[in-house]
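DATA SHEET
Item: assembly model
Revision: 1
Owner: S.N.
Input lines:
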Amino acid sequence: MNDLMTSLGLALAGGALIGLASALLMLLRGRIAGISGIAGGAMSPDTDDKGWRGMFLLGLLAGGGTLLLAMPQQIQAPDQPIWMVLAAGLFVGFGVRLGNGCTSGHGVCGISRFSVRSLVATATFVGVGMITASLIHG
Amino acid sequence: MHALLTLFVGWLFAMGLGISGMTDVSKVIGFLNIRGEWDPSLMGVMGGAIIVYSIAYRLIHRKRVEPIIEQKFRIPTRTDIDFRLVAGAAMFGIGWGTAGICPGPGITSMATGAQTSIAFVAAMILGMFAHQVLNARGQAAKAEPAKA
């Protein structure tokens, strides 16, 4: 029970930071903080704003480095076989571009704007994610 | 200066992911796997983020007509719910449920240098690229239907 409360507290606090960072990106650059969109645009030939995208992604990596030093228990890589991780990565990469967003863009920013499109996408990937994880890891 | 600010925003985002538990694969799978000993705590991540962002988003748009660095706000305008949206989200769900990683935590976790983290992001980039190629082809075919 205590464990659950600690986890929930960390989840809420971390979530609030994610919300704050997303709000800053809107205030500074007028952009939705959708990681798949930022990353996809960084490698697309159709965008001419790769500079800020690269900086944001570099910031994520720097955050990863900080986490590794400050709270290494919070950052744990998958221990599934490599072929499974590769297959998952392919699905995630293709899926987020086809569906125009992931956990951040649809799940946080979209739902906050009361976008029904984002709500449908979020319900779908959380639902399918739960079914998949329950089948594979249950 | 602007670049550094953007770097900081990315850093803050990653710190939020890390503190919340989203970069801990076993935690994410514990949330998605409802057959096991279900750990619902990660619902708090979306909760905390939505509370802060939904308020901040409205404040920003009430107080300002343009962002600080760029010329204008770019807000998604689409409202249609089509096959691509649902199919894409479902594909993403399959990958997320399998590995326990979504794009943000994936990129953040590359800092560990772990083979699985790097492999995930490499495959994710390949998947994005595959979509880009197929999408461009689809649009070219649409523009030139006579050839088909």
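QC remark: The two ends of chain B are 51 Å apart (CA to CA).
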